[in-house]
Design a protein that fits this description.
This protein is of the alpha/beta class and about 230 residues long. It is built from 6 helices and 11 strands. About 30% of the residues lie in helices and about 25% in strands.
C-alpha cells in the first residue's frame, strides 16, 4: 500500500471528503501535526510516495502572519519536487508548493468564499477535472506561480484555482473535499476569522452535493496524475 504524509496546520482542517477516496484505493495517509509539540515535520527521506500540505485557516506565507515552520515545509516540498515525488497543496499548501517551485506569494486579506472554478485545460487531471466545480476558500494570501506552472482552472475573475507543477504535483487554492463543519471548527479554533464566515458556511451547505459529485472526478484524475496507484 502507498502512504502519503499529510501536514496539518490546524486541528480543524484535514483531508475531509478526500479521505474516503484515498482509503477506497488503499492509499494510506499519515497526519503530521507540527502545531502539537510532540510531533514535527517529517524528514525528507521519510517521504516515500508523496506529500499533502493542507490549509492553515488564518496562517499565511507572505509576511503578515506566516505559518510556523514555513521554511521547513518549503524545503520539504522542494525536496519532493526534485525527487519526482507528488505534492498536493491545498490552500496554504498551494502557496507553499508555489514557493518551493520557484514562485512566490502575495499578501491578501484573510477571506472566505464559495464560488466556482472553471477548467481552462481540457487535459487537466488526465481529462477528469470537471468543466466547472465549487471553489471553497478560507485563507490568507495567495500563490504567485512560477513561469513553468500550468494553470488548470480559474475563477470567473481570472484568479488561479488549480495549478500543476511538473508532471505530478498540484496546487488547489480551495479545498476540494471540504465539509461545512471544518469551517465552523476553524472559526472556533482561532480568534481571527473573516467577517462573512457565517455566510460562507451557509452557502457551503447548499453546495455539499456538488462538492461530493465534483470530488469523484477530481480524485479519479488526481490519483492517475500522481501515479499513486501505480
Amino acid at each position: 500500500m502507498k502512504q502519503l504524509f499529510v501536514i496539518q496546520h490546524t486541528s480543524a482542517e484535514y483531508l475531509g471528503l478526500m479521505e474516503d477516496h484515498f482509503e477506497g484505493r488503499r492509499i494510506r495517509f499519515n497526519y503530521c501535526r507540527p502545531f502539537v509539540k510532540i510531533t514535527s515535520i517529517p524528514a525528507p527521506e521519510k517521504i516515500a510516495e508523496g506529500l499533502v500540505i493542507l490549509g492553515g485557516g488564518p496562517w499565511g506565507t507572505a509576511g503578515g502572519r506566516d505559518v510556523p515552520n514555513l521554511q521547513q515545509e518549503v524545503d520539504l516540498a522542494k525536496y519532493c519536487l526534485e525527487h519526482n515525488k507528488p505534492v498536493i497543496g491545498i490552500g496554504l499548501g498551494a502557496q507553499i508548493l508555489a514557493i518551493a517551485a520557484g514562485g512566490s506569494t502575495e499578501s491578501t486579506d484573510f477571506t472566505s468564499a464559495v464560488t466556482q472554478a472553471y477548467r481552462c485545460e481540457d487535459s487537466a487531471l488526465h481529462g477528469f477535472l470537471p468543466e466547472t466545480y465549487p471553489l471553497i476558500t478560507y485563507m490568507r494570501d495567495k500563490p504567485v506561480l512560477p513561469p513553468d506552472a500550468l494553470i488548470l482552472s480559474k475563477t470567473s475573475e481570472g484568479e488561479v484555482a488549480l495549478f500543476q507543477i511538473g508532471s505530478n504535483s498540484f496546487g488547489f487554492v480551495g479545498h476540494p473535499g471540504i465539509k461545512p463543519a471544518m469551517i465552523e471548527d476553524l472559526v472556533m479554533e482561532f480568534e481571527e476569522s473573516p467577517d462573512n464566515s457565517g455566510e460562507t458556511i451557509d452557502a457551503l451547505r447548499f453546495q455539499v452535493k456538488n462538492v461530493e459529485d465534483s470530488l469523484v472526478l477530481i480524485m479519479t484524475g488526481l490519483i492517475q496524475a500522481t501515479a499513486l496507484m501505480d
